[in-house]
Amino acid sequence: MAWYIIRRILQAVPVVLGATLLIYALVFLRPGDPIVALFGDKPVSEAVRAQIEAQYNFDKPFLVQWLLFLKGALTLDLGLSFSGQPVIDLIARAFPVTIKLAFMALVIESVLGIAAGFYAGIKRGKLFDSTMLVVSLLVIAVPIFVFGFLMQLVFGVKLAWAPVTVGGDASFTRLLIPAFVLGLVSFAYVLRLTRTSMIENLTADHVRTARAKGLTDGQVNRRHVLRNSLIPVVTYLGADLGTLMAGAIVTEGIFNVPGVGNLAWRAIQQGETPTIVSVVTVMVLIYVVMSLLVDLLYAWLDPRIRYA
Amino acid sequence: MTEPLLKINDLHVAFRQGRTMVPAVQGASLAVYPGQTVAIVGESGSGKSTTAHAIIGLLPGTGQVTDGEILFEGRDIAHASKKDIVAVRGSKIGLVPQDPMSNLNPLYRVGKQIKEALEAAGIAKGKAADARVIELLEEAGLPDAERRAKQFPHEFSGGMRQRALIAMGLAARPKLLIADEPTSALDVTVQKQILDHLDQLTDDLGVAVLLITHDLGLAAERADHLVVMYKGRVVESGPALQILQHPQHPYSQRLIKSAPSLASQRLLSQQRAEVREQAQEVAEVLADEVAQGDTQFGEGLDVVVEAKGLTKVFPIPGGAPWKKSEFTAVDDVSFQLKRGTTLAIVGESGSGKSTVAQMVLDLLKPTSGTVEFDGVDISTLRGKKEQLAFRRQVQPVFQNPYASLDPMYSIYRSIEEPLRTHKIGTGAEREARIRDLLDKVSLPWAVSRRFPNELSGGQRQRVAVARALALQPEVVILDEAVSALDVLVQAQILSLLADLQAELGLSYLFITHDLAVVRQIADDVLVMERGKLVEHASVDEVFSNPRQEYTRRLLDAIPGGSIELSR
Amino acid sequence: MPEIPTTAPLPGQDHFVAPLGETPLEATGTLDTSRPPESQWKEAWKNLRRNVLFWVSAIILGFVLVVVAFPGLFTDLNPLKADLSRSLEGPSSGHIAGFDKQGYDVFARTIYGARASVSVGVACTLVVTILGLISGALAGFYGGWVDTIVSRIADIFFAIPLLLGAIVGLSVLNNAWPDRGFGGGVVAVTFALAAFGWPQVTRIARSAVLEVKNLEFVDAARAIGASQARNLWRHVVPNALAPVIVIATVSLGIFIVAEATLSFLGIGLPYGVVSWGNDISAAQNQIRSGQRLGVLFWPASALAVTVLGFILLGDAVQDALDPKSRKKD
């Protein structure tokens, strides 16, 4: 088991390096002068330009820039943003908000999705199942920003139950609606996955054997069908955290949440290399750690899996 | 006069397909008395399992009882309420299901799953139930039950799982135990142990058993009363021995004639000797041609395949990088296959017999040792031309008739593929050859336009034989080629193989787990156990005078082997 | 061994033999020649035809495709012609969806917007499927270092969330290629989405190939002497296609949503291009300033219905190709 974890971590190293290199290269390829982006239309003297170029390593070759970034990253020095703040501070402020948002979305989508998928699976072809099928398809088909916008309009503006935007106060209640919107698409996928998995397991041999023991339908469905159906769902949920954090770009934009999405969005618009690459690196790290955790969780949920 | 425990009267079961009802059981009747063992015997599609599942109300999918009654202790349970049938399950009627691999929930400890049965029947709870679980597992013949109860199903071997399932089926002390092919997924030696144990246990407890099986020999050995089913109907029923010795219905007669375990050894050796004589004659002529001409591969030797010290070691992945763990699948195996004869390699699962087949086919490189084909070491073949020349001489037929043909290819294309690959003949010549091949394996020409999914298992296996023969090989490797087939079909394919051998002078390497089948097709036998060769002798020697303890156990385990038939 | 019963058999257990007339013996393995031969694709098509959902999606998508090909059939109006004097006017005769703020006819723009969304969806799906299928097939079939390299590269692209990667990619492309018009816009969005979307298909194709390559017919083909490459492309890949087709159909819908999202963020298709994403984005700004919901309803519904069509089709195809439902024996 220990060796499995070590091997996985070793495998993750090239992935993280590759991902940062890829993003670095993309941003590097972006034409235009970052100094201009920094100063806008104000004239810049040669001396200031040279100083800033040295400060951001713009004067060095591409690979050197990247290596210097990596070297800094090892000591948590991610460089400065164009506004002069250390990127690490920006990230330290933004990530907790987004993680909170994403986790809330994760809880909402899994509780609702699993419950609805469970009943839809048992009542296959009945009214509840068909309704849920339509709901899930609608949720997937209508873009998230349309939903977000409508919810904002209905709950924020028309009913005034919740503030229209989150702003500086990222409290639990204020994040509730954004989290719901963020988790909506995944809710549909969790529902569909749980339902399919339930239907598959309902015809499993061991489920028939459980019935032959004299267990009631309720006992069989809960203990044997649902429990076994959750394995693929948990795998999906683990991988979903990364998707949710990326999806936060849209949701955070609509509700003005001061999270990573907002941070990344502004940085991309300005071509602010250190911030973009840092945000992506942290996201990739989260992805890598989550997929390792999911695999370990998988082994815990399914005793047949033994990593060696 | 006692009353029957279970009485089925004119049972009809059907499955809904769209708007029509497809019948699966049509008018089955039978009776089981307390403490008695009754066996339902039939091939796949006979409705035997459907009947069993109808009794406990667990018909799969759209199945439903359309007519008739199932009286258990005088009450009709086919039309009872859901609550009543749940009350009967487990506590009054236990089930030992077919496949031990898929019938335990992989996510729960074995002990907990048996405990569930106790709790559902309201027999014991909590600590008391835990203690009872251990007793039950011990009773089912599982050593070290206390530790085993805390393990998960995947930590059990197939035989151990089946014992756990038996413990589960008997947990609530039912009056009737339905055993649905309880051992057909297990190795023969394990099968015998478990059946012996089950017999004794049900005897001691006075439990009636309804045994569902495809194996007539096994049924006759274990049951007092037989019910033979065919295409959803009971064609014959009565006292076991009476049916076995004096079958009345033509179907039962055919079934008994085809059962490999029940066939007479003397008769078989005679038939076999005739086939071998013809095959060797033809083969000798062919070998002379090879020896004289230099167009063909090989030297025309008497020994067509020779394995010398074959060993295959697989690395086990994972673990610390400096600790390489290995698994020796095949350990120093040598043998000779003589031209025009059949050499059978017999072994249970994990014996390495299929790995040997893969190495002889040059689909897997041996770790050490060599395979010589007609005097040529196949590891020395260089270049595509030599490789192809070897491939033309050795062709396989695999076990699973559902996986051995590409489902995307029509039968014509499947059989044509070897000819195309070797660039043999023009289009018209190939078509003529395919006609001839289909004819050889007794399939109508109409089959050629069909796809594998439209054919039965036996038909697919015939197509696989035709494909193997397309290149006119000298050696055919039959890797469990008849193991997945129903008894009647199996008998047909075996006789087809024998006919082809006699006609074409083929040499067979026949890989199987089933010693009973060996008598019908093989001349020499190689017994393998855990990668090692344990016995190598002629078929007659092995059956009359096995030298090794392991071989003896394999022989003893052949179900029905001890029953005398009057012919 | 049971003893021969000496007593008379119990009631219901006497020796019974069914009359042969009622239980005729049939030859084993007869072939039903009444039906025409049926390949698996044909059978899948038959399953598909029986599915109501398939027909619903076929009607939706058929209609969408006609709109894409011949938008002129549905409206005479020019989507690029604005009449500021009718800004935000409600529905009227000849203008069933009314006008937006700039005075564009909302219905005409919705009709013409189909082309951009569907082009991006189709182009992305094609690129991603071809790339994913080839890389996944090679990785799964050859294993070893080929697998290691392909899987690690796929991991790198997979680890970067699709939307984030596409945004970074597009921000580069937008700067490098400012005036790219409709065609260039579609190419740029396709490039950005496909670059981070292919690993999904690679993973699915790889595991499908891994499953198929161990089947016995592949060994049989090797024993015949078929080359590795022939084995892969003629035997393994055709049999591993089903899950790839399913994911491709569903991704079509997903990519359409992704394109709309990118356009909503203002970095997808160029501003001047008529697309649902651009129109939805514009509509939201207008509604925020208190305007009517109609401007949002039309493009958003058109988008949702199209995506729904592709997802339904994916579901129907999955049911039709599912080997579990296909098994007869």
Automatic annotation (TrEMBL), chain A:
Belongs to the binding-protein-dependent transport system permease family. InterPro entries: BPD_transp_1_N (IPR045621), MetI-like (IPR000515), MetI-like_sf (IPR035906). This is ABC transporter permease. It comes from Aeromicrobium flavum. It is a multi-pass membrane protein. GO terms for cellular component: plasma membrane. Residues 95-298 form the ABC transmembrane type-1 domain. SUPFAM superfamilies: MetI-like. One of its GO terms (biological process) is transmembrane transport. Gene3D superfamilies: MetI-like.
From TrEMBL, chain B:
CDD domains: ABC_NikE_OppD_transporters (cd03257). Keywords: ATP-binding, Nucleotide-binding, Transport. GO terms for molecular function: ATP binding; ATP hydrolysis activity. SMART domains: AAA. The keyword Transport applies. Belongs to the ABC transporter superfamily. NCBIfam families: PRK10419.1 (NF007739), PRK11308.1 (NF008453). This is ABC transporter ATP-binding protein. It comes from Aeromicrobium flavum.
From TrEMBL, chain C:
Belongs to the binding-protein-dependent transport system permease family. GO terms for biological process: transmembrane transport. It comes from Aeromicrobium flavum. SUPFAM superfamilies: MetI-like (SSF161098). Its main location: membrane. GO terms for cellular component: plasma membrane. PROSITE patterns: ABC_TM1. CDD domains: TM_PBP2 (cd06261). Residues 114-314 form the ABC transmembrane type-1 domain. This is Peptide ABC transporter permease. It is found in: Cell membrane. It is a multi-pass membrane protein. The chain crosses the membrane at residues 52-74, 118-141, 153-174, 180-198, 240-267, 296-317. The keyword Methyltransferase does not apply. Keywords: Cell membrane, Membrane, Transmembrane, Transmembrane helix, Transport. It comes from the Bacteria. The gene is dppC. InterPro entries: BP-dependent_transpt_permease (IPR050366), MetI-like (IPR000515), MetI-like_sf (IPR035906), OppC_N (IPR025966).
